[in-house]
Specification:
heterodimer; A: mainly alpha; two-stranded antiparallel sheet; 5 helices; 2 strands; 76% helix; extended; B: 0% strand
Chain lengths: 108, 235
Amino acid sequence: MTTKVFITILLAGLVTWLIRVVPFVLVKRFKLPAWLIDFLSFVPVAILTAIFVESLLIYRPGQWPGINIGNLLASVPTFVAAIISKNLLLIVIVGVISMAVVRLLGWA
Amino acid sequence: MDEQLTWRSGFRDVLPTVFGYIGIGMAFGIIANTSHFTVLAALLMSLIVYAGSAQFVIVSMLAAHSPIGAIVVSTALINARMGLMSMTVAPLLQGENMVQNVLAGTLLTDETFALTMNKLNHTGHQLHSSWLHAANIGAYSVWAAATVLGAMVGQMIPDPDVLGLDFAVVAMFIGLLYLQIITDKSDPRRRQVGIAVFVAICMVLMMRFMPGNLAILAATVLGCLFGMGVRRFDH
């Protein structure tokens, strides 16, 4: 490992740590205004949707995003598993098997 | 998932996310290995940076001899959304001391954040650092172990992608999103679905102009503003 790699890891780690920890320190010190609490109450649904939809899209600079067919296809049985089981472990297992099948069939 | 906020239940609740960490962590180890990074470098990245997509970007930028400053700025942009997640969790631990808060923030990830939000629906919106530490440490250890495994035996074992393991993390988010919408009683379900649809449309529009990681941040902020607007309109 070269010095450059090591320094990069340290600095990238530091900046990531600050992003994670500073909000905790600030919230501990100061009371959040009501509008911010209102705003933050929507973060879970908004961010989970954004992360999921991002996995269905393929970024193409200067163009509309493409569709990740494999992830889209595997998502269907995974959603069905979610509705039926409401059990996270089972949902993940169905998802993994679905993706393996999608690849096995050469659909992605 | 139940209402208990102990260490024990934290370890139990984090179990379903383990597959995602194994799949992506091993994939990261393999890519670090094929990009000529040592096992130690891969492990340090997973231990010190501890952020899935940012680590992949760091490896590829280092391999492309990008300057350190550019790599650090990219890492900050990719991980900016974590600030939103930390700020959402922080008020729940406000009553605990600063050390617990800093520790909880240090190991918070997309996955343990999402898990925490689901947990709140079972605990009457209560959180305790014991549960979160257990979930965080469970995730962190599996991530580190998977990275080492991928980096060490990466070329000998089948590509985890073939097994569908890389999809584990997407499946988990599907599950957590669905469970969040059906169990969160603090907001009408119609409004939650409306926000999800709005964010999905934003993502498609945003990714015309920016890569996915930035689009996630932008679409989340817009989605929250949209939610605030709708809540005000409904009242």
